Amino acid sequence: xxxxxxxxxxxxxxxxxxxxxxxxxxxxxxxxxxxxxxxxxxxxxxxxxxxxxxxxxxxxxxxxxxxxxxxxxxxxxxxxxxxxxxxxxxxxxxxxxxxxxxxxxxxxxxxxxxxxxxxxxxxxxxxxxxxxxxxxxxxxxxxxxxxxxxxxxxxxxxxxxxxxxxxxxxxxxxxxxxxxxxxxxxxxxxxxxxxxxxxxxxxxxxxxxxxxxxxxxxxxxxxxxxxxxxxxxxxxxxxxxxxxxxxxxxxxxxxxxxxxxxxxxxxx
Length: 268
Description:
With 268 residues, the protein is an alpha/beta fold.
């Protein structure tokens, strides 16, 4: 398929890159119609390897025979819209850091039992709303052996453009899914699957992350809370143990993304 030179910003085919909001792209009411935007060749390749289906490409003209050629050749029937950097920036409203975007269909959601069937270490995210933190947590999960990520519906969408980019595409490597009844029934489902739940929280009665008994737990769900407020009290009460990261004097806590990396490493 020959690349299409952009001459009309109002072309409906460009809506996914220029005019649809994140909520419209996500399409929660009809998830099978949802779209997300992958940015940069590395991230797009990981998405393709993860089974995501491309809808269309938007790339700078200079990448047609450069970084984009491999992607074009791998997806010969997918439309490619192109123009110079300035044109694409006017269209999207931001500079394309790596010069290539790809609109892709959202993968089919996975349920908790499928996600956790063979896992020994999973992460549960409660109310983590910052897309940068979500992306960084996924990258740490992929690097440090966490086999699934479960998110409450109050979390940021892992497939929003910034989260995907910060994760370096690891959102397509680590299986993940939504928790619709957290803690409640979803906590009970984890327990039925043989998981113990560890709430990461600064409590006087919490175990140190260095406690050797934690590494001996066969199946462990590491529960991390929202930026600032942390986990809800009723969530902490429902977990099997509460765990804290030992801090040097004068520092009370870590950012949730940094805390996740420390916990994932220690409990791997």
